[in-house]
Amino acid sequence: MKNIFVLSMTLLVLLAGQLTAQTNLALSGSATASSMDYGWVEANGIDGNTGTGYHSVEAAALHWYEVDLGTTCQLSKVEIVNRGGFLARLNGAIIKLLAADRTELYVTDPVADSPTIAIFDNAGEGFRNVRYVRVEKDSAQGNPLTIMELRAIDAATAAVNVSPVNGSVGVLIDKNDTSELSPTLQWTASANVTAEDISGYYVFFGTDAAVIEAAAQGDAAMLGSTHMTATSYQHTADLEKDETYYWRVDTRLQDDPNTIIGAVWSFGTELTLPQIDLQPQDMIVPEGTDGLFTIEATDPLGGNLLYQWWIDPNAVVENDEYALTDGADYIGVATPQLTITAVDDDDDAMYYCVVTNAANVAKVQSTDQAQLIIGKQLGYWAFDGNLTDAKNGNTATNTGETAEGYDAGLIGDGQALDCTASAGITVQNTLDTSSWSFTWWEKADATGTQDWESMLAAGPSAGYENFEFNRYQSARYAHGINGNAYRYTDAATPLPRQQWYFHAVTFNQYTTEAVWYIDGVTLTKFNVGGVPAIDELIYVGDTRDGGQPYSGLIDDLKFYNYPVSPVHVATEYTDVVGGWVCTEVPAGDYDGNCIVDINDLSVMATDWLASGFFPL
Q1: Could you tell me which residues come within 8 angstroms of residue 610 by beta carbon, excluding any fewer than 6 positions away?
Q2: Nearest residue to 425 (alpha-carbon basis) of 386, 368, 372, 392
Q3: By C-alpha distance, which of 587, 338, 317, 545 is closest to 424?
Q4: Exposure check for the chain: N or C terminus, fewer CB within 10 A?
Q5: Closest Cα partner for 353 from 264, 292, 408?
Q6: Cα–Cα distance between 409 and 404 in angstroms, integer?
Q7: What is the pLDDT of residues 95-124, one digit of tens each?
Q8: Other CB atoms closer than 10 Å to residue 368's CB: what's the count?
């Protein structure tokens, strides 16, 4: 459950030794971010040195900085040291504290009037069960995000040193021996609280983490009818095998109405059910090709496992799942690997595997469901004298051209663009997809209108475009995705105007990786730091705001709902111009011609003879 906590910000004067009694857990954590600029790397924000810091790329659509504390912690407060002279860069930021499963536990209001050090302390109550500290700032707030130091101060007063060890599995129980009904719960007091300060403990125990997190004195989850003075507890009821139990110890203080709330710990009892070590993964499979789901499982009892794959054709409809059988459509339904052959629209569904202990059919475990999405071409604008979409009827619209013009393209006609205001051509997108690819041919006029000419773009009504692909400064190309830093072709290898070039850009929603190709060759792969949505409108020949008009021809624009492969890109290119493209340089290709032959052996021999080693 998300709690909105009170935001307290204080300007501190740090005196020598003031924080020596506090432990900054961020120092032993790890940091990641949406972007990094000018060497202001993520690690600078948690290195304990306020003279170094982290700095985001200013052009990013969303700035975020996140610290993984490495384990679940109880914090007394979070501090963010701002950059002197640039305090406003923290304005508009929100701070999120996340649980290990990334549930939002606490979220601040946007920071305003940033001080030198912003302190977030939940009105003095601290924060429990925190794994991640995340700072987010929308680019619409202006300025990049700068953090000189992020500190996560340990509460350091709750009970510690628990047994069973937090997160342990396979804890033995004996349901047939009353002397060993369950493991004994044990803990020790914090070193920061003296024994004289403590009057006792409240212990909460159960199988629901959320219930234990929210439990209060007198709830059913509390063990015993009142607080206990010992630092151990022997449970008196049976525990179940193959179960995860959660517990919490609160510390009651002498002459103090406040109780120190403990973190939620867990342990798993001994295992008898099959264990799923590798879950099936969602995947996008091009139409007509084979899809493959793979799982891995082990039997904790040391026996053999049986497998059965199931399909859930419609996740909304109840009880429509059925077991698959081997045949022309499915191979390996009783193995850890399921092959769906020559996928089509009927195969677009959820799949899972039921794993059974062969020696005891009562021991059954099901994997998570994984989705198979059929990858297909969703749009095709040939621009052969019209703006028709030959695939799905999403006919484009002339919104900025003085006249809807066509000229001899590379394949039939092409869309002539000399736009000087607003977007040239827009595509009304009704095609819902999170992974995608675009391919198109392009030939720029002898002279352009400016240094940045957008061939294809998409973006919301405000803020940075979700993506844009540009001819840049006459003889180069550049593109940006999701506010990410622009990628440029090499200035040392000019790409002159008045020539046809084939462009392809792909995006994979699962890896958040984009790949850029020109003339069938991979130029770069990079992580875009988020999911760039395909917007309602796609702009051809300009951007949303009409500021980057393109001058030239666009031909055969195609849109796919999946990241097409390097072979697909190369094939689209060579089907038009012929020849071949080296999609992957083979090992041993020393002369760079994409072929391993006698010439490569000659190069290797020459290098070997010139290696400089002298025989002993």
Answers
A1: none
A2: 386
A3: 545
A4: C
A5: 292
A6: 15
A7: 999 998 899 999 988 888 888 888 888 766
A8: 13
